[in-house]
Specification:
Elements lengths: L3 E5 L7 H8 L5 E7 L4 E6 L2 H11 L3 E2 L2 E2 L1 E4 L14
Antiparallel strand pairs: 1-3, 1-6, 2-3, 4-5
Length: 86
């Protein structure tokens, strides 16, 4: 999924509407998930070129007093359960 972006270093007062407004300047926002109280979220754009354009334009900008961290989202890491030691 190269069209899904991680957005970090968000102000805790940012809303989903705030993010949708700024990312919509670079294409269609298909899905947006803001992790409340954690300062990050995920945005799915309609295609890879829109995601790349948003990343290039928005990574490092000042947004609501914070410098945004925008990158291609990585798939969740699988939890591995090691063997128990006796």
């Amino acid at each position: 999924m190269q069209n899904k972006l991680y957005v970090g270093n968000l102000s805790y007062s940012v809303t989903q509407e705030d993010l949708k407004t700024i990312f919509s300047n670079y294409g269609e926002v298909r899905e947006l998930k803001l992790v409340e109280g954690k300062g990050f979220g995920f945005i799915e754009m309609s295609n890879q070129s829109e995601a790349e354009a948003a990343k290039k334009a928005l990574n490092g900008i000042d947004f609501m007093g914070r410098k945004l961290k925008v990158d291609i989202a990585q798939p969740p890491k699988r939890k591995s359960f090691g063997q128990r030691y006796r």
